Amino acid sequence: MVGLMTITMKMVDLMTLGANWQPKLFGIRVTTGLKMVDIMAINIGCQLAAKSYLGIGISCRTNNMTTGGVSVKTSSASLSMWMLGSSHERDAAVAREALEQGDTNFKALVEIFVGRKSSHIALIKQAYQKNYGRQLDQDIVRIEPPHPFQKILVAISTSHKAHRADVSQHIAKCDARRLFETGEGSSGTIEETVVLEIFSKRTISQLKLTFSCYKHIYGHDYTKSLKRGNSTAFEDALKMVVKCILNPPNYYAKTLYVSIKGKTVNKGSLVARVIVSRAEVDMDEIQKIFRRKYGMELREAISESIPSGDYRDFLVDLASKTTTAQTISS
Q1: Rounded to the nearest 5°, which phi and psi values hold at 40?
Q2: Is residue 70 within a helix (H) or strand (E), and if so which, with residue range?
């Protein structure tokens, strides 16, 4: 790991962030031994320095590492992540951070593997290897101690390698019946091997059709069969994954609400991860669902929860985006 690198600051055009938005943001060009990277940093009255082990992040030197409960590191990391050259670079950075935490952030990993097209997952893996010199799949397999989410992630990662674009109604119905027969149609807990086999062989679009067929055939969502008092850790993990597959906007609206209104230690980081990852995908739909379910605008909820400042303005602006096309999601 090399030391802190010299950086040069300049003002940049912020029209893409909204004509009425006036944050104090600066463009930064960081030169490493390998490449030059353009990132963004927020002007919060502290000295800025590049986080050299990433080659793309930033950190801040200040005597006050928090501002109203939002850490300087969190705000800087979120802004720099948003300004990475591509969405797959951002996802690779999120995946690395999720794996480096003391308790692996399986939720962040699931959101990546479920919410991105197979072609995008391939680019994420390439970026991960290029930036960190490691294989993303291998890092997931090596997670210790073993976890139910880990099994599901390995299966979904395997399915992405097939690159099958078409979906089959016949396969969906057959898989729905298998899920029923090995789940609520049996006397015991669900058979993990059957679920993992299906997840490893079907695309996210095919799985979504399977769960739709399940509801049509049996009259309720598949997740209902997992809401039992004696559910296993695998079933609890599976429930979260299925919800993310079935209705991403609804899933993310709830995730944002819980993060904003809950007593999470680092709510700014959780909110930023979701908003940055969905800003170009389905943020308009998330806004509608958030408004309908919780009776308030998403931007208002963020403004009430996160202290005022450029960082909050940045998140509010992204949360107010209107999506024109879903280009990187399944």
Answers
A1: -125, 145
A2: strand 70-71
